[in-house]
Design brief:
Helix content is 0%, strand content 46%. It contains no helices and 47 strands. The protein is elongated, with a radius of gyration of 22 Å.
Length: 366
């Protein structure tokens, strides 16, 4: 146990850093980070920060840094982190590893940069878990998962409340590296000044096999959920399912340019309402594209356009959706589209239209 109002640095250049327990500690008003775990060519693992108050430090509130070593398997539980000049909590792999850290039941409020930053250079940031945290009022992102040449796989953001942040609530940014198997589930995302959730792959990077499920994404200044790929980057095999998405600029957006490729993703079972485009697939390239994705079993209501498919999006399967008779726009290149059947939502058969099981539905014209 350690109690302090000064900075708490925990550094090691030895084969292993001693396990620390910081319980009911305070780290306030320091000229650097509040609490600092630093693995310099070493293993800095297994530390616990519980019920700490980390306020008003010049840099990050709590920082875990695995530079040429690792800062892994640490736990931050029940902390209050506010008013710091960097991120509230920063987990950084550098050229080492920042894996299997746990942040739970923590309140992160009004830090200058991001609420939580998980970043990796050429190393790894894998298997980190962020659960039941409140992240509000940051100057930048609520939660930022950032990958350069390394990997960020199997991370979880679950049951968090992200609101009123200065940029997107959750940003998964990949530059030449890879992020796969990450899960964003049961989060409540409201009133942020950017997007709700954005995957942004650039420079040959890859965001594939990730899942966004059962989230509420309401009232962002920009779009609800965005998948973006540029400069030969790819976003393949991601799933966006059973989310409540409303009162954003656009609901769900797939966007590519400069030879990016978005392929084989699923938009399934979402309720999307009160935006400009319910679902928008936007192309800004002559090569690459938005191809062979599946848009199925979504409800779009109160949007200016239910669906906006820009040239040359192609081969996207659009079936079993309920549209609210908003406008739709399609390119000259065909996307497989189930026949449109006039029926109100309450009249929908449980297994779709008995004549054509792939039908899309819209309310009949009165």
């Amino acid at each position: 146990m350690r109690r302090s109002s000064a900075a708490i640095p925990i550094r090691s250049a030895l084969p292993r850093c001693t396990r620390w327990r910081l319980w009911c500690s305070a780290a306030t008003g320091n000229g650097q980070h509040g609490v600092y775990f630093y693995g310099l060519g070493a293993s800095c693992k297994g530390h616990l920060v519980r019920d700490a108050v980390v306020i008003g430090n010049v840099a990050d509130g709590i920082r875990l840094f695995g530079d040429f070593g690792e800062a892994s398997a640490n736990r931050i539980l029940g902390a209050f982190v506010s008013g710091n000049g960097g991120s509230g909590i920063a987990v950084a792999g550098g050229s080492g590893a920042a894996d299997d850290n746990v942040i739970e039941d923590t309140m992160i409020v009004s830090n200058m940069v991001n609420g939580i930053t998980v970043s990796v250079g050429s190393g790894s940031a894998n298997g980190n878990e962020i659960r039941r945290c409140t992240v509000s009022g940051q100057g930048g992102y609520g939660i930022a998962l950032q990958v350069a040449e390394g990997r960020a796989d199997g991370n979880v953001v679950e049951a968090c409340n992200l609101r009123n942040n200065g940029d997107s609530a959750i940003n998964l940014g990949v530059d030449a590296g890879r992020a796969s198997g990450n899960r964003f589930t049961e989060n409540r995302i409201t009133g942020n000044n950017g997007h709700g959730i954005r995957f942004n792959a650039d420079n040959g990077g890859d965001t594939s096999g990730n899942r966004i499920e059962n989230c509420t994404v309401v009232g962002q200044a920009a779009d609800g959920i965005v998948l973006r790929a540029s400069h030969t980057a790819t976003a393949n095999g991601n799933v966006i399912a059973r989310n409540n998405i409303g009162d954003n600029q656009d609901g769900i957006v797939f966007e590519v340019f400069s030879e990016g490729l978005i392929r084989g993703n699923e938009i399934r079972g979402n309720t999307i309402y009160d935006g400009t485009d319910g679902i928008r697939c936007g192309e800004l390239n002559a090569v690459g594209g938005i191809v062979n994705n599946r848009i199925e079993d979504n409800l779009s209501t109160g949007n200016v356009r239910d669906l906006n498919m820009s040239d040359p999006s192609q081969g996207n399967l659009i079936v079993r959706n309920m549209f609210s008779a908003g406008a739709m726009w399609f390119p000259a290149i065909a996307n497989p589209f189930g026949p449109m059947v006039d029926a109100t939502y309450s009249e929908l058969p449980g297994t779709g239209d008995p004549v054509h099981p792939w039908a899309n539905f819209r309310p009949p014209v009165e």
